[in-house]
Give the backbone structure.
Amino acid sequence: MSQQLGTLEELPEAYRDALSKAGVAPLWPMMRNVLPHDAPQPLTKPGHWTYGSVRPLLIEAGELTPVEKAERRVLVLCDPGRGPGAMQATASIYLGMQLLLPGETAPAHVHTPSAVRIIVEGEGAFTVVDGEKLPMCEGDLVLTPGGEWHDHGHEGQDPVVWLDALDLPLFVYLEGSYAREGDLQARRNRPDASEVEYRSAGLAPSRQAHRARRYPMMRYPWDRTEAALRAMADHGDGAMPELDYVNPETGADVLPTMGFTAMMLAAGMTTTPPRRSCSSAFHVVRGRGRTTIDGQTVEWGPKDTFSAPVFASLSHEADEEAFLVRIHDRPLQEKLGYYEERE
Ligand code: 1HN
C-alpha cells in the first residue's frame, strides 16, 4: 500500500542544519520526485518547430555569423518544458537545424556523442565521415557515429539545411562529452557504401572478403526509403507502413542510443500507436496533417519538426499523403532493459 512519506518541514531545524553540515540529506522527502508511482513524470513538454518560423532565422544566422565563427551554424530546438536555451528536445535527444551556404566548409572534428542528419532542403552539400564522402539529398539520413571524424562541405548553388539529431544530452549527463579538432579529411575517390557494398537490401559483401566495420553504411538515400514504404502500402494489411533504419550487417538499430523509423501515412489515415516508454521527435519529410500529443494538437506541414515526451498518448492524422521520420531512444531503453509499450 502507498504510504504518505514524511516531509522536510517535519524535521527539527537543528537536525536539518546538522544534516547539511555533514553533507547528507534525507531521502524520504524526495523519494517520490525521483521515483514516482506507475510511470515517469517527464519534464519534457511537446514541442513544435515549424520550418516557416525556423528557416528565416537560420538564413539570418547565415548573414550574421560566418561559419568560421560558428564551427557549426545551428539553431537548437529547445524543449518547451526546459525553456529557452535548453540544449535538448527531450531528456536524451538533442535536435538542431543546421545551415551551410554554397562554398562553405564546416571543419573536421570528432566527438563522443553520435549524430544523425536528416536533409531538409537544398542540394550539393556533403559530409565526409571517416574519408567517405556522403552526398546529402533531401530526406536522406546520414550517420556520424561517435568517434568518427566528420566535416561538411557544399558544392551547390543554394543554401542547404539539415536536421541534426544527437544523443548529446546523455553524454553531457554522463560528463562524457568532448571533441577534438583536426584537418579536413582526404576523401576516398569512390561512392559511399549505400551505392557499392549495400546497394540492395538483403545483400551484403561476402564474409570472406569483407572486414566488418562497426558502421558499414552511413547514408540511407531517401528514394529507397520512400519506395520501400510505398511497396508496403501497396501490399500491406492496411496498417501504417513503418521501417526502422538498421545496420545492414547486423540488423540492429543504426546507433546504440538512438533509433530512426520512417513512417508513411495515407491521406485521411488516422493511426494511434501504443504509449511508448521512449521519448520521440518527428520530422515531416513531406505532407500535412495533425498529431495529438497528450491532448495537445500539433498541425504539421512539410519540413516541420515536433516532439513528444515519454509515455505520450499520440494520434496521427494525415490530410494528404505524408512521410515522417520518427527519432527515438528505444535502442537505449532496450539496452537498459526497460523499453515498454502500453495500449
Ligand atoms: C556537431 O558536431 C554537429 O558535426 C552538429 O554538424 C551539431 C551539436 C552539438 C555538438 C556537436 C556537426 C552539434 C555537433
Remarks:
- Residues 72, 74, 96, 98, 111, 115, 150, 164, 166, 168 surround 1-hydroxynaphthalene-2-carboxylic acid (CB under 6 Å).
- The chain has one domain: 48-202+214-342.
- The longest helix spans residues 51-64.
- The first strand starts at residue 47 and ends at 49.
